[in-house]
Design brief:
Distance between the termini: 33 Å
Strand content: 25-35%
Largest sheet: 7 strands, mixed
CATH topology of the largest domain: Quinone Oxidoreductase, Chain A, domain 1
Structural class: alpha/beta
Radius of gyration: 19 Å
Order of helices and strands: EEEHHEEEEEHHEHEHEEHEHHEHE
Number of domains: 2
Number of helices: 10
CATH architecture of the largest domain: Alpha-Beta Complex
Helix content: 25-40%
Length: 326
């Protein structure tokens, strides 16, 4: 097996141009870990803010560092305490909590961070869902306990987390309203939203009451919290990156002041949640949506594309240099 690999890293904060493809040593799987040959990894919306350094006071991490949270791939090695039968399995998974580095040719992760990839799902689409899908299942199923017939508002409904939330909300029998950009409204309806509204023309004052508000935008959180009816729950999954400390402080304060209403969390899914995500996909209740595919050599272009906004679902980075785009 190869002893070195390509990995995307950055040694300073800044624009996409700080991203470099470096050749580093292939990690060795430690006790309880598997070594995965990565087929593809996704680009998350929060990565651009992290790369720019806008969240450095909140996350308290510094370069040099890798990028990428979720991935699809094949197990090629195991550490002590892991069955050799894992070798050869096609899997999808996530980096350990608050760790990055899946945009690389190999990753070594705890065995509990991977699960068999859904049957019939190609590696590109499989890379689009582990982080966003487990975030949504944790939010709507485990935290909010969204019930049939309840009203769900998804703010940021066309992105990776938002689009998954629309589908899961519909699968759970909720009445789903999605806020998104004008050009994506028809697509959000196709995902299953009963209503799709232009976020530029629709403010909280234009909306009614909801049982659950899932927010992946991070601004005006107090205004959207006030839309909750009796027993309502809000899931603030993003922060205002222009004011990260103030945004984080509000979420922490509201979690105390409105502890039954505001349900913040940092996604750290259990193996059971990842396995449940596989079942959601195999049953057709949730579908990965890939807007565009980039080879690793065009990682800067992928981040520029994310920064322009309007992404439907996820952007995916393929480790193969002949990756199709568009």
């Amino acid at each position: 097996m190869e002893t070195t690999m390509r990995a995307v890293r950055h040694d300073r904060f800044g624009p996409p141009e700080v991203l470099e493809i470096e050749r580093i040593t292939v990690p060795r799987p430690g006790p309880g870990q598997v070594l995965v040959r990565v087929h593809a990894a996704s680009v998350s919306g929060g990565e651009t803010a992290i790369r720019e350094g806008r969240l450095r006071r909140v996350m308290r991490s510094k370069p040099p560092r890798g990028i990428g949270v979720d991935f699809s791939g094949r197990v090629v090695g195991v550490g002590t305490g892991v069955s050799p039968e894992q070798v050869g399995r096609e899997v999808w998974g996530l980096m350990p909590h608050m760790a990055f580095g899946s945009t690389a040719e190999y990753v070594a992760v705890p065995v509990g961070r991977v699960a068999p990839a859904p049957r019939g799902l190609d590696p590109i689409r499989a890379a689009a869902l582990p982080a966003t899908g487990t975030t949504v299942l944790t939010a709507l199923v485990e935290k909010a306990r969204l019930a049939e017939g309840e009203r769900l508002l998804v703010r940021g409904a066309s992105g990776g987390v938002g689009s998954a939330a629309v589908e899961v909300g519909r699968a759970l029998g909720a009445h789903v309203t999605g806020l998104a950009g004008a050009r994506n409204l028809d697509w959000v309806r196709e995902l299953g939203a009963h209503e799709a509204l232009d976020h530029r023309r629709t403010g909280p004052e234009d909306l009614g009451r909801f049982d659950v508000v899932l927010d992946v935008v991070g601004t005006r959180l107090e205004s959207y919290r006030r839309l909750l009816g009796p027993g309502g729950r809000m899931l603030p999954l993003a922060m205002d990156t222009s004011r990260p400390l103030r945004s984080a402080a509000y979420v922490l304060w509201s979690a105390v002041a409105h502890r039954r209403q505001v349900l913040p969390f940092s996604n750290d899914p259990s193996p059971e949640t990842l396995a449940e995500l596989t079942r959601y996909v195999e049953s057709g209740r949730l579908t990965p949506h890939v807007d565009e595919v980039f080879p690793m050599s065009r990682i800067r272009d992928a981040h520029h594309r994310m920064e322009r906004g309007g992404v439907r679902g996820k952007l995916v980075v393929s480790m193969a240099e002949d990756a199709a785009t568009g």
